[in-house]
Write a structure and sequence with these properties.
With 318 residues, the chain is α/β, with parallel strands linked by helices. It has one domain (13-316): Rossmann fold, CATH 3.40.50.300. It is 37% helix and 18% strand. It has 8 helices and 9 strands. The protein has helices at residues 18-23, 34-40, 49-80, 103-115, 135-141, 155-166, 234-250, 268-291; strands spanning 13-17, 91-97, 123-127, 171-178, 183-192, 196-200, 226-231, 300-304, 310-316. Helix 3 (49-80) crosses helix 4 (103-115) and helix 7 packs across helix 8 (268-291).
């Protein structure tokens, strides 16, 4: 098996190598065009029609089955309670992984593919970046250098957002983050009566913390119906981060409005050194201390190879 499990060993997971997983979507039409794939591809991600067909088509079908099954269970529960069946609350998918691992591309691909299934055409995507504390507040708390760590988020606001979604509110707002200015904006994205909501972020699978009185609080992940973790070897993620930093130095960092405009004038070697410093002091420690430990909490893990292609898939058994 993909993780070295020998035949006959018991495990709470089903693990499939790439070819076996791809076969699950072999007889299903792939709904996205090459142009749509180009639009959702992240900087540096090697995403093509083959990867969408072999990896994301089976995943979208599996998720669609979960959504439909949740609807059937909802109707059965309301019947059991002798209640008039109200509209089902949205199915919420949590998607986690490191900086530069490609989770944002995965989220966008799944959003587009899930919306093609007729049972749930309204699919919303919300990133947790918007729930970061503003830079001024992070600076006041001495956390600007720990941006992306669990304590840098307004966790109460994020929890309220997810609870409102799962409460069935017809309209819920989420704050918007600008990667250009590296800060939360005054804009809001409105989520209106979705069938599915994908919540994507570094630390969305974090367990609940312990309150001051010793009681365990609620976690955002308590309200997820399905969770995905995008995984890869740390050496590969570190390299992808550096490669992305170099590409941004030639593109977005050259915008005078960019928070990172100061990096645009770096030489190649200086940029590599700076990218490695940021990884070693911020992104790497966050991955090792906070993000990677939540991998085992995911319903499904996508393990990537050095070229960004998914090598194997691990799914928790029901």
């Amino acid at each position: 098996m993909a993780n070295g499990t020998h035949a006959g060993e018991s495990s709470p997971y089903v693990e499939l190598e790439r070819d076996a997983w791809a076969e699950l979507g072999a007889h299903t039409d792939q709904p996205l065009s090459a142009e749509e794939i180009d639009r959702v591809r992240g900087l540096g991600d090697q995403l093509d029609i083959g990867e969408v067909q072999q990896i994301y088509l089976p995943l979208s079908r599996l998720l669609s089955m979960y959504v439909e099954a949740a609807g059937a269970l909802h109707r059965a529960q309301e019947d059991f309670l002798h209640r008039t069946v109200p509209p089902r609350t949205p199915f919420v998918i949590g998607l986690a992984g490191s900086v530069a691992v490609g989770k944002s591309t995965t989220a966008r691909v799944l959003q587009q593919m899930l919306a093609h299934w007729p049972a749930h055409p309204r699919v919303s995507l919300v990133t947790t970046d918007g729930f970061l504390h503003p830079n001024a507040e992070l600076e006041r708390r001495g956390l600007l250098g720990r941006k992306g760590f669990p304590e840098s988020y307004d966790r109460k606001a994020l929890l309220r957002f997810v609870i409102d979604i799962k409460s069935g509110k017809e309209e819920v707002e989420a704050p918007v983050y600008s990667h250009l200015t590296y800060d939360v904006t005054d804009e809001r994205v409105v989520v209106q009566s979705p069938d599915i909501v994908i919540v994507e972020g570094l630390n969305v699978l974090q367990p609940a913390g312990i309150r001051g009185d010793g009681r365990t609080g609620l976690a955002v992940s308590d309200f997820f119906d399905f969770t995905v973790y995008v995984d890869a070897a740390q050496a590969d993620i570190r390299r992808w981060y550096t490669d992305r930093f170099l590409r941004l130095r030639e593109t977005a960092f050259r915008d005078p409005a960019s928070y990172f405009a100061k990096y645009a004038g770096l030489s190649h070697d200086e940029a590599v050194t700076e990218a490695n410093r940021i990884w070693d002091t911020i992104n790497g420690p966050n991955l090792n201390g906070n993000i990677a430990p939540t991998r085992s909490r995911a319903t499904l893990v996508l393990r990537k190879d050095a070229d960004h292609s998914v090598r194997w898939v691990r799914l928790r058994k029901l």
